[in-house]
Amino acid sequence: MNAPWKPGVGQRDTFHAFVCDDHSFDLLRAVASEMGWPPEKVNKGGMRNAVQSLSITASPQILFVDMSESGDPLNDINSLAEVCEPGTVVIAAGQVNDVRLYRDLIASGIQDYLLKPFGADQLRDALTQAQAVFLAPRETAPERPHCTVAVIGTRGGVGASSIATSLAWLLSEKKKRPTALLDLDVHFGTNALAMDLEPGRGLTDAIENPSRIDGLFIERAMVRASDTLAILSAEAPISQPMMTDGGAFYQLLEEFRLAFECSVIDLPRNMLIQHPHLMTDANIAVVVTELTLAAARDTIRILSWLKTNAPQSRVLVVANRVHPGAPEISRKDFEQSIERKVDVIVPFDLRISAQAAKLGKTLAETAKSSKVGASCIALLDAVMGAAADDDETPRPARGKGDSLLGKIGDLKSKLPTRRKDKAAVL
Could you tell me which residue, 134 or 191, shows the higher pLDDT? Predict the structure, then answer.
């Protein structure tokens, strides 16, 4: 069980206890007083009272809980984990003398388990050890800079969500980076669906109550796809408009930076207009497009927007679902139009796309040994390279004759002409 009482320090009471019998109650009050802790923090009621109390109040640094009346100790520990804040050191007590239970409790994150009846010396030693554990300096691994990747589709249907879920999966599975995936299409997002997960209400609750967003909220609201990948999404009723100033999204990204090494944002185009601040801290922008005239126009517009509003972001252009035959616009003409290279080409493969949807897996996971899979790995390498080198590549300045309409006109002139006869209609 991933118990939330992981080491951490916060402003909270030093000690709380919840016990079932008078002897334990009196003994705990006496030992607590010896250690300089308020004896009134010792309560009657055991596990049930502990869960009820801690669901509405902050949990202490050290928690003593009596499990004597618990019919299912491990299940009750899970319930306690749901209401315990990070950093709490938990000591349990009970009447079951079973080494398997002891091992399961320790594995769940419990600091110690005392067999009743226990004496004052045994209790004092357990509490002293718990205090030492809480106050001990924490050994932390060297921090790596957080990587935030925004995935933006130039047109509806270009497969930006497929790229976002694949990239998040690759970061978490191939690079072993704890990764958060945020689907900001509140009404029609498909990130959770693509992984065969229920989206939950986490994102909706965050939008409705931004003040609730903290580390504990993130722990409870996000849906786990694996040990290293968590998703925050929604499936809000289409009759329910999204009323937010974007502050909730900013707070979510702040918490992601504290809890994860990487964040992948599936960012619909309209969010760039409504909430441009979402790109403020994005290291990398992945612009997903297709080789069509309309997509070329919108790629130019989005690249221009990013250059003005997110100059700190390294931009990668991904041409997705490229058919093996002749595309509407050749890669060369497309690149000339947008004044830069396409970084990754992902070929269209109907069989793999259908298989991914059927299995409830990401495109990258399903297409491991295919050209599509190789393209996904190429994207991962490009993202990791961009994260390691945030220097923006200079782009050629636009000349007087290089207007957007002029470029689109040049592309149109290169498209195949249509025959004005009956065969063309057919």
Answer: 191
